[in-house]
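We modelled the chain as a single entity of 186 amino acids. Its sequence is:
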Amino acid sequence: MRVLVAAEGPVDEVVLGMLRQRVGAEVTYKTFQSRGIDQVLRLATDVVRAAHFGGFDLLVIHADADDSPPHQPAHVEARCRVCRLEACVATAMPTLRDIGRASPLRTVVAVPCQSTDAWLLWGRDDGAPTAVEQRHRHDVKRALFGERKSGHEAAALGWVGQLRDRLDRGEMPPEALQRVVLAVRR
């Protein structure tokens, strides 16, 4: 399986990169020139096109929820990052011309409640998946990185193995991570 990951930041790429190790997926990263939700939203339709024409099986588009409203099934909320990213995907998909793909591009919008760092904390500290995703992102970052302003990517590389171990033991991951894992397994 070929997976294109378009993530908001470098720590997010480390976490989502464990897919390669966990299920043997070939993972390629779309690295944005600048980071943040505005950049992800601005380039989302281009990333969908790149994944389609690049022959990828799955596109994972990631952004942290930060302080946006939580996503609710069947709602359309202008500030909800899941809704905004899903709208970008829905706009792009019908514009893709047929290139003889064996199967259509599958997409997953991966937006944890606050930040992907919560997934690392869940893996490291054996917390409850829902509780850890509901913690404020600044508390999660402090719990993981202390007051360090740099070196987060290297620290994440050290903890991603613990996250993978919990998944390998069959523990139920945080909801947004579970959606990504299930999509890759299909």
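As a brief sanity check on the tokenised model: The chain has one domain: 2-185. The beta strands are 2-6, 26-30, 58-62, 106-110.
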